[in-house]
């Protein structure tokens, strides 16, 4: 994988990191969450959706949000290093991080379910966070993500990756989105649900299972 990324860096150098990330996301896949399925620690949908190939596709995925909502929800820029510091401030809560982007249709479809889950667990010591993996330099995309959050009335702590996309994905150990990380009360990563394995899939019940396991400890 490292060798492939190196080759792609060379090929897409004139275009920039965003184009390269698009190719990597296509290769890894942007898995669509299934309605049913067995629990898995790393998964994607069998009916797999591809990552964006253009700006048009990117913003079409967020079409569930109105074109011009009355207000926006501000994304807070954060680097991976700063996130490690922020994570400690949530202790002793369990922390659930939803990695998403407007170009990822499964992410957009799941987001309202994550909000509902956050509200169910709000009084049980579980803190939900959204980590937007848009290109920070793509200002229209970031603005679109903020409009989407406003339309959904997100009660989560909403962050924006504040570093080059390739670095951010690498630092968080991600190949693609959607992905959900569940941290225990000490801030240690307990469950990693990703779209890396096309033979398996994860859905909301897997997130809830991870949370319930930690709550029972």
The neighbouring-strand order within the major sheet is 1-4-3-2-5-6
| Cα separation of the termini | 37 Å
Indicate the CATH architecture: 3-Layer(aba) Sandwich
Radius of gyration (CA) equals 16 Å
Helical fraction: 40-55%
Q: Based on the structure, what is the oligomeric state of the protein chains? A: single chain
Work out the number of β strands. Answer: 6
Task: Provide an overview of this structure.
- By secondary structure, the chain is α/β, with parallel strands linked by helices.
- Helix 1 crosses helix 2.
- The protein contains 8 helices and 6 strands.
- Strands 1-4-3-2-5-6 form a 6-stranded mixed sheet.
- The radius of gyration is 16 Å and the shape is globular.
- The chain has a single domain, classed as Glutaredoxin (3-Layer(aba) Sandwich).
List keywords for this structure.
globular; 6-stranded mixed sheet; alpha/beta; disordered N terminus; 217 residues; 6 strands
Summarize this structure briefly:
Helix content is 41%, strand content 15%. The chain has 217 residues and is α/β, with parallel strands linked by helices.
Q: How is the topology of this model organized?
A:
Elements: H1 2-12, H2 17-28, H3 55-60, E1 76-78, H4 80-89, E2 94-100, H5 105-121, E3 126-132, H6 139-151, E4 157-161, H7 165-171, E5 179-183, E6 189-193, H8 204-215
Parallel strand pairs: 1-4, 2-3, 3-4
Antiparallel strand pairs: 2-5, 5-6
């Amino acid at each position: 994988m490292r060798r492939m990324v190196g080759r792609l860096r060379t090929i897409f150098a004139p275009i920039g990191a965003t184009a390269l990330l698009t190719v990597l996301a296509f290769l890894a896949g942007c898995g669509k969450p299934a309605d049913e399925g067995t629990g898995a620690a790393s998964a994607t949908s069998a009916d797999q959706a591809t990552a964006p190939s253009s700006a048009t596709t990117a913003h079409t995925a967020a079409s569930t949000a109105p074109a011009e909502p009355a207000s926006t929800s501000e994304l807070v820029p954060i680097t991976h290093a700063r996130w490690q510091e922020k994570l400690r401030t949530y202790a002793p809560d369990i922390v659930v991080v939803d990695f998403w982007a407007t170009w990822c249709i499964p992410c957009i479809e799941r987001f309202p379910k994550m909000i509902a889950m956050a509200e169910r667990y709000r009084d049980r010591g579980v803190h939900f966070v959204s980590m937007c993996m848009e290109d920070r330099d793509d200002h229209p995309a970031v603005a679109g993500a903020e409009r989407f959050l406003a339309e959904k009335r997100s009660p989560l702590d909403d962050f924006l990756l504040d570093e080059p996309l390739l670095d951010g994905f690498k630092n968080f150990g991600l190949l693609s989105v959607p992905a959900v990380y569940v941290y225990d009360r000490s801030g240690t990563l307990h469950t990693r649900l990703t779209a890396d394995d096309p033979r398996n899939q994860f859905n909301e019940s897997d997130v809830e299972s991870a949370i319930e396991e930690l709550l029972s400890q």
